[in-house]
Amino acid sequence: MDRLNDILAGTFPGASLVVKDQALGYRRKQDLFILLGEAFGDDDSDLSGPFVVKIGSKERLEKERQGWDRCRPPGLKHGSKA
């Protein structure tokens, strides 16, 4: 649990995060966690609001991000944070 807290604190510096749910899909995937949460910052910064946070190996997440970048709808500027 400490590792998860460290990852989330590094992802949302200066904000509080409430994890609402864990998305499992059709089956559990080893070493991949998909969390649905809400971040609360001091102001209306980009770190406040609802988020989907994926935690896994760098290689797995990079491959998924590259796939998303290839099929991203034109004009959509958010949805991928390296």
Question: Would you mind describing this structure in some detail?
Answer:
The structure is a single chain. With 82 residues, this protein is an alpha+beta fold. The chain has one domain. Helix content is 29%, strand content 28%. The protein has two helices and three strands; from the N terminus they run H-E-E-E-H. It has a three-stranded antiparallel sheet, covered by helices on one side. A hairpin with an 8-residue loop joins strand 2 and strand 3. The chain starts with a helix and ends in an 11-residue tail after the last helix. The mean pLDDT is 84.
Please render the helix and strand layout as text.
Layout: H1 2-11, E1 16-23, E2 33-40, E3 49-55, H2 58-71
Antiparallel strand pairs: 1-2, 2-3
Quick overview of this protein structure:
The chain has helices at residues 2-11, 58-71; strands at 16-23, 33-40, 49-55. By secondary structure, the chain is α+β, with helices and mostly antiparallel strands.
